[in-house]
Every structure is written in C-alpha cells, then in structure tokens.
What does this fold into?
Amino acid sequence: MAKQTVAEQFIDILVRAGVRRLYGVVGDSLNPVVDAIRRTAALDWIQVRHEETAAFAAGAEAQLTGKLAACAGSCGPGNLHLINGLYDAHRSMAPVLALASHIPSSEIGTTYFQETHPDRLFSECSHYSELISSTKQMPRVVQTAIQHAVGQSGVAVVSLPGDVAAEQAPERAFEHALVTTRPSVRPGDEEIDALARMVDEAAKVTLFCGSGTAGAHAEVMEFAERVKSPVGHALRGKEWIQYDNPYDVGMSGLLGYGAAYEATHECDLLILLGTDFPYSAFLPDDVRIVQVDVRPEHLGRRTKLDLAVWGDVRETLRCLLPKVREKNDRTFLDRMLKKHAATLEGVVKAYTRKVEKHVPIHPEYVASVLDEEAADDAVFTVDTGMCNVWAARYLTPNGRRRVIGSFSHGSMANALPQAIGAQFTDRGRQIVSMSGDGGFSMLMGDFLTLVQYDLPVKVVLFNNSSLGMVELEMMVSGLPAYGTTNQNPDFSAIARAAGAYGVRVEKPKQLRGALRDAFRHKGPALVDVVTDPNALSIPPKISAEMVSGFALSAGKMVLDGGVGRMVQMARSNLRNIPRV
It folds into this structure.
C-alpha cells in the first residue's frame, strides 16, 4: 500500500464518513489538502467566493441530508471568515466538520504572518475544536471530531498546519469504525408515567412544537387526537408539523399568527415538544409546563418546568400513547380552532385587497404568488429579516417542502449561501432563495458561484431598498430610522452580466409570469422584485417586554400582514368540529 500524506489521510476519513464535498477558498496552507482532493474522485472541492458562504452551504447541506458536511478555510483570515456560518450551523444542530488550516507549526506562538489561534477561536461555536500539531495525532483527532459533530449534532473544528498536512502519515495509524448516525433516545419509565398522570389530570392540553418533531408528525397527530389538544408551533417547527394538521392553531412569537398564543396561555398543561423556543415573554407563567427534548441542556432553560423529559419526541410519544386515557371533551380544542380561523380571517384582506394595482408591490403578494408557483418539493432558503415574516406566514408546508434559514442564529446574508449547499445535494430539485436586498448584497459575490457551477438556484429578491427589520426596531424604540436605506442597482442587470437569467419586476401583473419564466429556466436565475418598504408586520400579541432585545417585527404603525393559504387550512379544520 502506497504511503499517504496527512492531507490524503484526512480526505480518506471524510469520504469514509460520507462527506462528498468540501466547500472553501484555496490558500497556501490549504494547498496539500486541495491537491489531495484533486486526486480523489470520491470528494469534490467546491470553490466559493467567501468562506462564510462555505460554512453556510455546508450547514444547509447537513440540514437537508442529516449527514455530515464539511467546509475549509486557509490560515488566519481565511478560516476566520468561516465563523459566522459555523455559528449558524452549530445553533441549527447541523453536523459540520470545519478544517481550519494553520500557519507553519514551527511558527505558532511567534505572532507570525496571519497567525491566529483557531483551536481557541472556534471553541464557542463547536462541540470540539482541536489542533493537530503532530502526524501522530492522525487520524484519531479527525475521527473524534467527526463523532462529536454527528453524535452531538453540531460543529467540530480541526486546525491543521499546512506543513503537517504535507507530511507522511504514520504507517500504522489507529483507525476505527466511524459513527455516522444518531440513535433514538427513549425516556425512562418513571418520566413517562409522570407525564401520563399529568396529561390525564389536565382538562385542557396544548402542544407547542419545534424542529424536534421532525419525523414525528404521525405520533403528534395521534396524541393530539387522543387528548383533544390544539397544536401550535415555533418557526422551525412549521415545516414538520403544520401540514395535514386538523389541530393547527398557528405560530407564536413575534412572527406569529393565529391562536397559538391563546392556546398556550389558556390551557391547564402545556407540552413543549422538541422546541428550544427562546422568547420566554410569549410563554405562560401560570400553567403547568412539560418539555420533551433530545438535548438535555435545552430542558428548562427558557421557562420553569413542572416536568423535564429527556428523549426523542417520536419515541416519547410512542411510549406515552398507550398510557394516557382518551379525552372526550373537545370544548377547548374547538374554541381554539374557531379563534384561529377568526383571527386569520381578520387579516387575510391585508394581502388580497387591491394588490393588482399597488405599486411598489406588496411583499405579501410576492410571497403568496411564490408559494403558489413553487414546486411541491421545493426547498426555500430564507434571509433573516422581513423575508422570515413572509416565509412564516405564506409558505405552505406539505411534508415534502423544506424551509431553511438562520432561524436560531439570526444572521444576515444566509439565504444565497444556503441555497448553494441545498442545490448541490440535488441538482434536479427546485431551490428558491428568498433574499432581501440587504442580505443578498452582503454576500452577492457568491451569485457567481451559481454561474460557475451552473447551479439552477432561483433567487427571488424582495427589494425594498432598506433594512426593514432594523428600521422597524428603531421605530419600536422611539428612534427615527437612520442608516437603513440602501441605494441599490438593478440586480437583474447584474445577474445578466454575470451570465445568469435576470428579470426585474416593478408591477404586480408582471410577477406571476416572471416567476414562471425563472422556474422554467434551466440554470441560475434572479427575479428582482421591487417591493413596498412600508409593508411591515405585527404579531398577534405584543408588549414592550416582548420587543426589548429582539430585533424583529413589532410596532403600532404597521400593517397586519396576511397569512396566505393558511386561512384556507384554518377554514377546512373547522369542518372537524362536530355539529350538535
């Protein structure tokens, strides 16, 4: 067997772990690794224009596939650019391995050119961050890093000096079978029995669901039917729990809508399922609360709990269902369903009234038409800001669509980079980047990555020439808007100059045709939609306490916003209420 360099061994380990791409920007300290990839058919080097994009792309790939993804940055400034995307991946519980290449090992500690200490810098946004200073540490450090990333669902970072990467790997290296999938976690019988007693004792139960309900839709629906519970959700729970849900009462939080707030506050028992919902001001303080989560560190850190249950949502509900008595009283559930429908009916006019004539275009209208025209299995990547609002209120989940954003980290400029990672997982699947003009222009250089790899991502640009969320935050604080206006070019012209399809939409009647043409186009496309900067949003319940410290939508001088096809879902759910 031919001898390997440390870089070649590193790549082989990634391939064994199921990694198929390494996103990054080349640089001298990375050269041995990139050259090893050049000679390896099983793994591709994906050249992006900014390392932040590399980390976001890897995080999106990991979220879509559930498998390990990887990114890399060269020494010093190169790997520093990874940090924002890695924070996002880590907080999104996406298994990502980052290679932070390093200065020559003999120069570490001398304030050498481009010297940083990546093993320290990345410690806060990773489960594992270690420096390989000797060939004898390979491959154990990389294998350990992979198992941290996969086992704890987050980021692991390996710092590797370029000179060490170029050396020969030890001939009798210690290698072991890699763990690349997570097990199910079942709670103990004592916790299950305690939860069953609490459910049986409660007259009114509400379920509030997060991303931890992925794969548990059937169990949640069965449990809701058994205990006659309304089901609300956080933003990251929307795609997993809202579809085919006759118990749906909407979303809580500052992006919320419907009756979720009332359902969580008027129950006797609130069960938080797989959610680390951070906004405690929206949670009740006078009802009994149970939290079920596979991550024990999440339990009780947002609100006081009467019972903490460590386990997968699906496994927990499978154990719980046979132990709870079926409830026959639907009074609370039916009242919440009626409240939900009435609330949505009250704001639906906000996105349907005179939209065909309104210029600049209502962004609500853009989102509702996009929802109708996009594929049933589309993946939407969503910029932080007002795009979060439109995605939350207008995108209709169906169990096949995916919605990915910087929902836990709240970074600008995430949508385009995440769309790159999403598209590489499946070139035949429709990937739609819902970008704001502020976020898009921040990492606009990586639109060229779409063109370079002929990735058929469709960028739908909500162009209101402002940082809408920041402007709204200022208004809520009683401050005049300042520094929030963008002087934008014709982004569609930039897209065409780059070699992609680009079209600018300024009138509502042009919108549907422009989206259809872009979706039919075989390569990358950008639809630059000029939207109304005055179209903002207001949550269903608001107070000064809720607004403070949260840079998202609230205010008294704003539109209610619409709710898209969700009003149709609410209407259909009313048919489930028995007639007496």
Observations:
- The two ends are 79 Å apart (CA to CA).
- The chain has 24 helices and 19 strands.
- Confidence is low (pLDDT under 50) at residues 544-560.
